[in-house]
Amino acid sequence: MNIANILHERIVAGDIGIDVRKSRGWSPWHQHGLSQRDVTIVTPRDKGAFLWAVQRCLDARCPYELVGGGTSTAKPAGSDVQIETKCLDTLFIDEAAQELIVGAGVTIDAAEAYVAEKGWTLGQWLGSGATATIGGSIVTNAMGILAGRYGTLRDSISSVEVVDSTGDVSWVSASDFRSLVSPTILAVRLPLWLSPDGRALARFVGADDPFAAMRQVTTARLLPAHISVDQSGAITVIAEGETHLETARYQLIAAILQKHGAVQDLAIDQNRHWDTLISANPWSSNAGGGCWADRILVHAKWASCADVLDEWTQRANLAGAELTWQAVNPSLSGVCFIFDVNLPATTVEPEWLSDGSV
Questions:
Q1: Are residues 74 and 128 in the same domain?
Q2: Sheet with strand 81-84: strands edge to edge
Q3: Which domain range does residue 322 map to?
Q4: Rounded CA gap, 99 and 76, in Å?
Q5: Claim to verify: residue 257 and residue 288 sit in the same structural domain
Q6: Whole-angstrom distance, CA of residue 150 vs CA of residue 192
């Protein structure tokens, strides 16, 4: 008896709260919109039902995929079963530890809204935050535009509730979690930060060498909440914690950027530009099923920034793909490139990405 029949048999008996259906072809939460095989979609109604479904898959040695918000770039495992995680909806603030206990199926925006009511923030501002889940963001190492200040979700977790390969449920430390093989995340503990009094944004254009300018800001240890370089060469700076930009840190950053030929774009609409930064979602085109889109993170040393850009630009041009990029989260050793790739009329990962060729 296959896993779908096993699950259906138990549900018909009325023993567990799970909805099960079979699907082929269109799947709105599949990585790129289309599923080329028959899959059993499992929707548990609570945590107990979720654990039961996972255990039955483990007992039957049936691979399964977890479905969160559908904005993931994790590669599908070709499993016959997809288990939705939205029932993992725990939300609780541990005031003593100043941590949030949050279920893997809770969306980023929902978690931020919940802690904001108490004057806290997680510092996670993702473009896909309305649909991206806590669990999915940890698995894919997603990062928001303020990751330079607060870190990624994966970096932030203090402990994780997991189901291991034998079906055992336990809380493990962040270091132990990283050593587990294919664990299923149920919930995590995340540190809380006091919500800042204010946040202001500035944009600088015309720098002779934007990377050299950003590197000097980094080596001077003046990193603001966010600093990035986009494809046009514009440098975006977000100052957080003060109600005005005229702080000592900002003035020193501005002086360095101006030394490199950059001038502040005074015509920028701060609110509109901020909204644009946090609403960008490279996977939105996947919902139509008519293209292939992905976000790739590449860490580069300062000396190799130009080579990394040339390589990925060449890959995209040869494949006829649309490529946009940002350089974010600078450190003393280098910077992280975010490459957003959009390949029209394609629904599968192109070979030029999977085989590493140029």
A1: no
A2: 18-26, 34-44, 81-84, 64-67
A3: 284-354
A4: 32
A5: no
A6: 10
